[in-house]
Amino acid sequence: MKPINVGLLGIGIVGGGTWDVLNRNADEIQRRAGRAIRISVVADKDRAKADSIVKGKAKVVADAFEVVRGSEVEIVVELIGGYTVAKDLVMEAIGHGKHVVTANKALLATHGNEIFAAAQKKGVMVAFEAAVAGGVPIIKAVREGLTANRIEWIAGIINGTSNFILSEMRDKGIAFAEALKDAQARGYAEADPTFDIEGVDAAHKLTILSALAFGIPMQFEKCFREGIQKLTKADIRYAEELGYRIKLLGITKKTNQGIELRVHPTLVPARRLIANVEGVMNGILVKGDAVGPTLYYGAGAGSQPTASAVVADLVDVTRLITADPEQRVPHLAFQPDQLSSERVLGMEEVETACYLRMRVQDKPGVLADIARTLADGRISIEAMVQKEPGEGEPQVDIVLLTNRAIERDVNRAIARIEKLPTVVGAVTRIRLEQLL
Q: Is 205 a catalytic residue?
């Protein structure tokens, strides 16, 4: 059988890794796919760089639209990134009847509904394993491996940069700014780290996982996001003393009220496996009603791990390229006409336990006032730590762990506590999950 021809758009870090893996493991891949998979054309604005990588084994062009509009390739691999040109290229490829493999989580989270609808209408596949958690096969696990289950929740460390920063803060006792600087020096964080540290990247990925888990459309704009930039080394230390670690988690749950979709720093019991995912690694817990909690761990980024997922998608598409489109695995796991209209909850409707840290004047009755304020808001205290003041210090830290409460009630209680005359400055709130 003749090789299947692939057009590669972008031969940067992931594109270069894809070229390398596909060529290095060509024989093994052909045995699995049933036919050879060959990158016949590469599009990259830096043609000299592309030529130095492919060494004459593929045609190199500067115009990516030349690839998606031409008749030479059957599968287009989009590794350019971004929302604009990448979307135009993907839609153009679909319009010309080409299958698409992409690692572009931002594109799918924001325009996935439109892209999948177009692909469904045209009878082509859009594969995106590399869009979430790099080389960890979480998309296939949720979409296919757990098909028998009613997914209850997903909680994941899905941004390696933030996880590295938090690991450094805990291990070395350093402040956020210093840990971020170290991440940038090592190449783990961009010069502008906004997407990573403010939870945007994790929200893109969580939006995709939530759609797969619960059969809902992509709804990135409804995902609550809170980053790690305000965390202090004191919070990291206090959490540790209480038996917890702080992780930036993407959490999506199906409740009787609706679907939760949220990214924020979270206290996790230190004994949980996911609490011990350190550095730039990713870890994702998926709870199914039949299988229980399952954990997926591995490299969430990098040339070779992400290329592993891209090539796996190429193999899947190659295997199914002649199949009846109606018999293929649906893009979002559920049949397109069976997607749910179940609403995504606003954060103020979500119920979580909380860690609350406040700076107070070292006077009698302060804790009683705080406890009374929380009780008036229907919030009960699970644990409390009052730190000893330093010599001559008139102020002290109080740390509370609450039982589960509605976010709206917690917000009101925090506002009232901050107005107490004995409370100095703002209350720090970090949500807490047991992940049982």
A: yes
